[in-house]
Predict the 3D structure of the following.
Amino acid sequence: MSATAPATRPALLIVDDDPLITDTLQFVLARDFDVTCCGSREQAVEHVRTAARPPALALVDLGLPPVPHLPTEGFALIGELLAHLPGLRILVLSGQSEETNGRRARALGAIDLVAKPCEPGHLKVMLNEALRIGAPDPRREGDAVDAGAERQSGLVGESPAMRRLREQIALYAGSTHPALIEGESGSGKERVAACLHHLSARSSEPYLALNCAAISPTLVEPTLFGYAKGAFTGASTHKSGYFEEAGNGTLFLDEIGELPIDLQAKLLRVLENGEFQRVGETQTRVSTARIIAATNRDLRREIRAGGFRSDLYHRLSVFTLSVPPLREMGEDRMLLLEHFTRLFCAQGGVTPFRLDAEAERAWRQYQFPGNVRELRNIVIRLVTKHAGQTISRRELESEFDLDPAAGSAAMGALQALEEARAELARSPAFSLEDALRARERLYIEAALSQCQGNVTQAARILGINRTTLYGRLEVLGRGPGGAALAVER
């Protein structure tokens, strides 16, 4: 449900599966924000895909269905929301408020974690502060600064990896051929695409960006190619798509790995000869726009898994640019610290903070798993909390995700959940019993191999008794490919 509010109020998305919490928050916040509430990750993603007015802020619970006792759904939602709306300001409001969860959420791109219950007045202050400092237009496709500042400052960094990236941009900017930008989430692929356009002869032409993950799969084709009046329900007029509107400029397709497989063939056709058709038309049109794509996925692995066309990959990757993760950029993290501190202090009208010697050493040593997006959000929080102050190592490290084991475990569980969902989607005749039996056989084989077939030792490793393992072996019978499970009786 959504509260009726003037368009001047900031749009706020609240994601929580407890109706009592969402109703209460909507009641206390509706005077200051245009509130929309969703009860699950899927509902929230669908909302940002279809909302006429994208949210500028989000309050996200970590424990969401179908696994509300774990933070994995909330962690996944943070990444998905930022993939759709890179400028979205996210606050985590959760009862799972352990410091490791807070650090992981901040590393993924959230501004901060607020423990439940939270006094409404304090929550309003935090939401307004998130809007005031470092909040770009949520419709803008980019992580860091507005386009004007971006053109002036370029890519910040003097590390060998960043110098090589700038050399590649200068070399490839003038070409008319497609380019593929690869890099981890939060590393700044959108900025690289913008630089390719602004340094080209097309800089005075349109620059359009479309996040392929940000819209419903059924809307991708009419959004890209346009549609004729009456082509589908709701098509009350003719409408041009991104390929037409880009003209002789640049079309940036972010998260290209999310493009539905059936549309990949149509995109390939445009890349090969420039030809496309509006949905519902037979007239062939021609696009002269340059295509730049970006992904944080391993498209070669997607090709092997059948999720991405190899011919489209080779057509897109005429030029390939790799955006380095921040952990490989050495002293650039200090330059980025200075850059964002100046930017957000000027924006907020506050005095810059300083790091003491130990804090500066900690900054240089931190790996920044969330890359430049995480660094940027850390600076926003430091500007907000410590303007004009000297920050100690302890104060700084409270902003870091310093428990990689916990973060890896959470992300491992998240990855396993995603793999399970994918398997269910592509296997209409899925059998849980067969899947569990295959998983059981895998662990038994691993234990037997580690113990050279000794059942007693293998049972000890697996945490079961010897007779139970013999029983499991009898049930499982022969191993994959017909090979008998090797045991030493």
User: Anything to note?
Assistant: The longest strand covers residues 89-94. The chain has four domains: 11-132, 147-322, 326-397, 431-489.
